[in-house]
Write the structure tokens for this entry.
Amino acid sequence: MRYRIRHITEYKYAGRVSHCYNLAQMTPRSSRRQTCHNSRIDVTPVVAAGSRREDYFGNTAYHFEIQKPHRELVITATSEVETHSQIGDTNLDLGRTCAEARRQMQQARLEEVILAREFQLDSAMVRASAELRDFAADLFTDDRPLLSAVAALTERIYSEFEYSPLATTIATPISEVMKNRKGVCQDFAHVQIGCLRALGFAAKYVSGYLETLPPPGQEKMVGADASHAWLSVFSPGEGWFEFDPTNNCMAGEQHIITAWGRDYYDVTPLKGVIFGGGTDPIMTVSVDVARL
Amino acid sequence: MSGESELNLHYPPLDRAGDDIRDSEGQVLPHWQYVLDSLSALPADALAERQSKALRLLRDDGATYNVYSDDINPPRIWGLDLVPNVISSEEWADIEAGLLERSELLNLLLRDLYGPRTLIRTGVLPPEALFSHRGFLRACQGVRTPGEHELITHAVDMVRGADGNMLVLADRTQCPSGAGYALENRTVMSRTFPSLFRDSHVHRLAAYFQQLRSKLLSLCPNRARPRVAVLTPGPRNETYFEHAYIANYLGFYLVQSDDLIVRNGFLWMKSLDGLNRVDVLLRRVDDWFCDPVELRSDSRLGVPGLLEVVRSGNLVVANPLGSGVLENPVLLKYLPGISKALLGRELRMPTVQTYWCGDEQDKAYVLEHLQEMVIKPINRRPGELSINAGQATAEELDALKARIMQNPLGFVAQPVIGASYIPTLDGAVLTPRPGILRTFTVAGTSSYSVMPGGLTRVGLDEGAFIISSQTGASSKDTWVVASEPERLITNQPAEDQAAREADMINLPSRVLENLYWMGRYAERAEAALRLLRTTHALLNGEEPVTPAMRTYLLRSLSSIAATAVPPLPESDEAMGVLLREGAIPHAIAGVLNSMLFCADEAKELLSSDTYRVINDIRDALPVLNAAPDDYRTADEVIDPLVTALMALSGLNHESMMRGYGWRFMELGRRLERALQSSGMMGELLGPVLAEPEQSRMTEALLLTLEGLISYRRRYGARTAIQTGLDLVMLDTDNPRSLLYQLDQMLIHVRKLPNNKGFLHELPPAERALVSCATHIRLSILSELTADQDGERQGLREAMAALGDNLMQISDMISDRYFDHREESQQLVTARWEGL
């Protein structure tokens, strides 16, 4: 599927911002199932110096500084992306068993496996814990194919957690999400990543967009789409597979990848330091995913 | 013991292994023998004398190591033991070769870890060894330093192991500290024992610093004269002394976070004439803290956007950001394999055996032999020390085991290494102390060079386990002694020096601001102390002081020291107590503290003579704050402080270069003196009093403003207001008169850079000053002193107006020339990195 994505982030500040330094991760990366044909980021006010680079994880990072005083910052990322679903007919009930996968992770003879182990370690926002392990352990029996177990965990999170945008912020720790069983896509992805790591598997955090379709008979509203997050799990010898616990599915054509990392912290869409600006800026984000 | 008799520095053979000064047969090594004999030959009290001389030199140089230094606890003087650590040049040649090889290896390792990570891919280094260390900064992937080397400076801690050979304990690779202290130790030792030092043919340290300087300059190949700055966290950092010392020695700017700004993809230093580009940064700020955009978001010590400037090649940071990854102790375990992979051979100098609990076998071994081990957390929190499990209680051992089991990746263990003993003075007795040597290498164009010597630290007692400056260890100079005298190396090409001085006029505006305020606080403290002294003199004088006089004196004092007027006591005696122990001395101490803070911020511009006076003031502060029991007479406290402040003023005047630094300090002094004098004139002479009170008040004012003697000579014994004012307001021959201050300020203000568009229109500060000076100059004394309902309204209003105008002028100067950094904040509030 080919999409045009427009992702607009607006900041309205209470006071004047004299200058600022920002880092945006809003350019869709290319991956095995996705090609980014073109992408641009427009910023107002005008950027004094800007540069684009590939980061440690292979994502595209855009640095920019603004030296013009302003009270409003608008960042518009526009991209054209072609996506495919993951491997055609993955039968989750075949393939590497949990025991086999775990053993191969530990031995790590192949370069691919060695490098995947980075994603099995704790990261800033996701730390493995006994609580997370216990939440998932019964699904990962030795003989069960790993991906089947991951799918079952995806379903468990989907059914046991309530989607509630007001329940958490970006800084809510996983332990609290586990306690309240409420959150948003980012929290669910973190929970599942934490469970997988606690059980000895490697998992990445994937940020991106999800195309949403309007109810039958209605026209799609511009800006109604949202940025989204899911995860990718590593099965030794088989590769990386993306699961979406918010929607209880594997990521498909409608899942457009922006960036991946160990957790949200590695792929924060926009961060930076501003000088001045007063307190409590108002931020609005609108995303529009259009089929081409 | 008589002064003539020789010292008995007998140092008996140790009854255990690890005597640094004897060979295996128990014979004192010849290079040690010479030094110990020379020390023993000193007369008994000479040693104490040299010790106090060394201490004085260190203090005068401002050599401090600030652990927990704050307003109440002054910084600790750097500890130096007078017995050097002596190493023969034959042995040093081996050490040197080992260190060179080690630096080369770490350089290659650093390049691999932030580049292809071949060592990980090929299984030489397990991924967890790298990826679970906080010092591995993914944001630094691919950042390269121009030239052959990534690692510019490297420090190695080592001890002499049981076999007598040096054993490496740890590497310091981010912003290694200690080279400056080593140089200071050397400077002090060579001045304390000039002949011993000369005759011992000690290898000199200068070449190391020259190499460092030329390496830093060479890191920016694109510009004829690159600007290098030393980035310090500021005077509160424990090794700030060294930052200022090295910056000065190398002739580089000393800058703090607020002095720097990223603009248009370059790094700039804010100075009086605008922004100046910085090409190379020698940083003394840890990796994590250098850029709040990409690294620790709550850091106030770095510069937002710095890392991207480095990536773009417009700035070189030494050591490169991310180099803290090499301090990961897990790497020590894998060093033999890494060395074989990168150098094709194992390192010749051994490293302490290191077990990593992330390795199953190692973990089992460590848990079994826990009590023989030193346990080190891999991601150390600030202030966190290694744990000597052998000294732990059973409960502590259980807790430690639980911690290891919980997070095996997070701990390494090393066998307890008994450092060998070095003779150390304890009073006049030599005692054995465990010693550790830190030495330094610096990259050159093709290979590294090693500092011949280094910083030796010795434990506080014989059984000391952790030897670090933070735990209060003392230090020693390290002498690598040659059998032949060394060729002298001249310090620097003269032409280079001149160019540097010309450039140094562009001081960071923060430094100028601190000098300005140092001047203001010094004058404010002096004015308050002088008036305090006058008040004491009146209270203790023959004639009684009336309540009215007391009120006006106290009010004036309170307004100078900026404290609330304390309730007025009934008797003179009670008043005396109030002035000694009450709010006013505290407030004056506060003013002096502020002055000292400004002096520390501008430390690199102050001579060591100046620093000696500053230390005198610092030492006198506790007396001002003293409890009643400690109280000595007022004069004993006040007089030395006033003298010290005047000495400071004189030194600044006589020994500071007439650059902007000096000018701003003078401006601050003149402005503050005018402000305080005019305030006193209004307060003390404003109310109309009956004679003889009136004459006594006038006298008090003249005494405080140092005008009484001139007045007497000119007008005789009777003191009258108008002639008094004539002297302290209008007489431009009197360097303490109001008009003199205003005229001087005008001279300075006219010399400041000014980019106004007009040739003849006066800039705001100058215009305001001309107006003030003219008003005062046009004063008619009879009008000022006319009695209106018991008050001299004219005088009061004139002085109040002058005070207001001076405050405005100060604001104008501050707005125009000093930097006013806005508060910065994160776009997105996040606190995850603290985890």
